[in-house]
Amino acid sequence: MFKTSRIILPILFAGTIVSCGKTKDSDDWYKDLLDLKGWSFVDRSGMPDTNVFLIDSDQYKDAFNQMYDEEPDLSTFRTKVKEKADELRGKVTGILEAEDSGTGNLTSTALSEMLVPDVLSIDLDSDVKFPNGRRFDDDSMDKMLGLILNRGKLLSHGDGLSDGVSFNASDLTASFPYLTKALEAE
Amino acid sequence: MLNAIFVAWALLLVSTALATDFSDGKATLNAPSLDITNFYSFRSDKDANNFVFAFNVNAHKPGKVAQADLFDDTAKYTIFIDTNGDDTAELEINVFFKSANTQYAVFVGKDVMVGNLGEVSQTGNMKAFAGYRNDPAFLDYEGIANFFSTFCTKDGGYSAKGLRCKDTGKPDNYFGNFNVGSVVVEIPIKTITGKDDPKLGTIRTWVRSFKRSGQVE
Predict the structure, then answer these.
(1) Centroid of chain to Cα B3
(2) pTM surpassing 0.80?
(3) pLDDT digits over A116-128, tens only?
(4) Partner A contacted by B68 (CB < 8 A)
(5) HSE-up of B130 (CA within 13 Å, CB side)?
(6) Cα–Cα dist B9/B176, whole Å
(7) For testing the chain B interface, which of A30, A51, A159 should be mutated: the one with the most B CBs within 10 Å?
(8) Using CA atoms, how far apart are residues B144 and A148, in angstroms rounded to an integer?
């Protein structure tokens, strides 16, 4: 179990850092880096955009990124996610199609337990695509919108709620690292 | 409040350094090289025995971020992989950068791959890459931001074109013209689960960025 302070303190090691006698300019600059202690959380990502849609205020957004996967953080953020999902679902009622119902209904409580802690879960015996893992070409935004707003029949492998933008196959390559080269400056 | 968040999104539209997970907190807005914009984890199409982990930071318009600023060379980036469901990692992939980001080091457990920025490195059946890439994220950023800030009460109602309100244009992939700092790692599934069958088991995974605090616990 790792333990690291979540408090962001002034950076004492800006620029070239020294680790166990080696500098980050030497040929073996990486040798002892695993032994360094004293790291503070800054950001975290598992599922996409949970923080953006469902956590209010910069104070809680930073705390969400820096949370521990244990109480009381879990219950604090599950409550916030549930409350925000209920608020958003209420606001789009009458604008979007009706919420999923019956066995397809994803309650806000179930959603909060799915999204907190913020991890990406993958059952290796199933097809690995979002939300069972995440590929570069998965339309995870459509599916996150569907999960958050309880629309698009995600629980029965539906497509979620479309934002009208789809994947462009030319954005990937067949060989590692699979992502296309950076665009040149105009 | 949500409106305030999306007003912030709108203001950020003019920014040159912008994350897909925009409005992710002050700590990341002030440190884009530590702002993880997206995280991916999937079975390799080329080899079903391998799994790919990837994350991006520092989304930006082409030419707006120098190599020395793409990643934070005083930081640590860690992919955590939990294989027994206790939300504690059994395997960590730790990523570091040499001064000015001239090289990267990717540790899979204790095994290390070292490469020049923008080049692939390989050790046994493991591969690693770190460098500039076109942002693979695709979404109608402006349409979504406007929808959640107004719920189409100010734009003549919902258009049913994606999440666009009427008179706000067509859905558009805003991030298609962005670059990011990408880290991609491909490793055998057996290294993760310890099992010969690559379809056996469940993985729970997430990525964090860290800064040195000078505080040793």
Answers:
(1) 25
(2) yes
(3) 999 999 999 999 9
(4) no
(5) 28
(6) 17
(7) A30
(8) 13
